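Recap slide: Putative amidase domain-containing protein, sequence and predicted structure.
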Amino acid sequence: MVLTRRFRIVAAVLVLGGLVAGTAAVAGASSGEPTAAATATPAADSTQAAPKADETEPDTTATERVVPAEVGEPVPVDPQVQAQVSYMLAHWTDYNTDAYGVITDNDCVNFTSQSLIERGWTMDDQWWSEGTGSDFDTSSPWISSTAFRDYVAQSGRATALTDDQRDQVKLGDVAQFDWDNSGDRDHTGVVTRIEGSGDDIQIYYAGHTDDTDFRSVDYAITEKHPGATAYYWSIP
């Protein structure tokens, strides 16, 4: 009977200990405290996740888009003026001896007159030419700068402009020069280019004798013939 009683006591102790341990475990679980398995740090993943599309950093090396510069509208040119200027540029060194005569060392007005025919002018009894090469005849206004000035002024075919009126000069207008400011005209050409505006207008001309296609008026009157004066005939 004694052994049986001791056995019961031991069994009771064991049962009581189990209940206490079980109660503690249940209490821990119900209190929300993590177990050893829950608090264990998982092994680090060696594979890095790819960033999302909207998390990608912008490409700061991309070239900024270049905006083209504005281009001005082309200046309209009358077809007859274009024909005149084209003639000057085609024959400023290649003299047109098949259609006209040539005056050696003094062909500037003869060449200008030819270009005006290309522009649409017609000869009259004061301004004319006939023959070719060295076998030809002309009126004085066809070949003389001063006579041409007088003819144009009297006929009204063009309007006189001074060098201070560059803003009114157009392509195809006639440029004339008084190299020594004696009152006559010493050289004649045709305006083939105009650049700039306002007080910074540059005018270029083509001509024979001093053969050129784009000679600057400023160069002609300040460097080639210092102190000379330029004039123009504005042709409607």
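Confidence is low (pLDDT under 50) at residues 1-69.
Residues 2-30 form the longest helix (29 residues).
(End of recap.)
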